[in-house]
Predict the structure of GNAT family N-acetyltransferase.
Amino acid sequence: MPELPQVGTRVSLRYRLPAGSVPPLSDVVGHLVDVGTTLRVKDKGGNVVAISAADVVSIRPLSAAPVRNRDIRNLEHAAALGWPGIEREWLGGWLLRFGHGDTRRANSAVPLLPSPGEHVGEIADWYIARGLPPLLAVPDRLFRVPPDQPTDGENIVMARRLTADASRSEVTLTPRPDDEWLRLHPRRVPVDVLTAVVDGEVVFGSVAGVAVGRAAVTVAPDGTRWAGLSSVHVAEDARRRGLARTLCDALLAWANERGATRAYVQVLADNTAARTLYESMGFTEHHRSRYMSLG
């Protein structure tokens, strides 16, 4: 059998049909969702084709399907609902979020509707009234950053399809972060910010007192249920033992049981270790996002 790409890769696969079939071979193009004695490929219509590994004639990785503006907007909408801060307000096509000033994601305005409009002055006033420097989150193609305007905090937004084969072994899941979870996580984010979610569910995972993470399931405007991973951290003396992957697998299994069909994670562009981990789990780059200060 040919060497197999990673789960999550978009592939073109040719395979043998049962003896006597005319034609004797068939093809499928889609995302590889499972490997082993049986391969499963999900096509663009959402149908899963199961193929015996012994029948595979050839398999070729393909470049990711083009990402459209509406795809970016749908993912960003689900992500904003999964990390919304404790106070939020719509202004034109912008969602403004406030979360005590803890994390830029929970304290920035993000453009989520087509043609969000020029509301920079009003957005600035909203944040200044709450004692925060005004900040925009600007995903690729959803807002035109002026040519002379600096940005920072570049995030790679990675995505993949979900499958139902992940394990929860060794992982404890709770609806709120307990004292041990909060102790292990390096950032002192208030609990009300961590647990905030709009029209969705959130869960907190931990592994043997050495690894913690968070997942939120929310729905995009197109109806897709997304699982968002965040706050993943492994104690320094417990790294390189596969615990981050064990934790993330359990969080994604929880999300899949709640109807999530796709998952995303936001990784700082210079965090090579995290990017390598998520790529090994089948995540690929979907788009990028940056922050722009209005100060």
Observations:
- The longest strand covers residues 25-34.
- The chain has a mean pLDDT of 92.
- The helical segments are 69-82, 120-128, 179-184, 191-194, 243-257, 272-280.
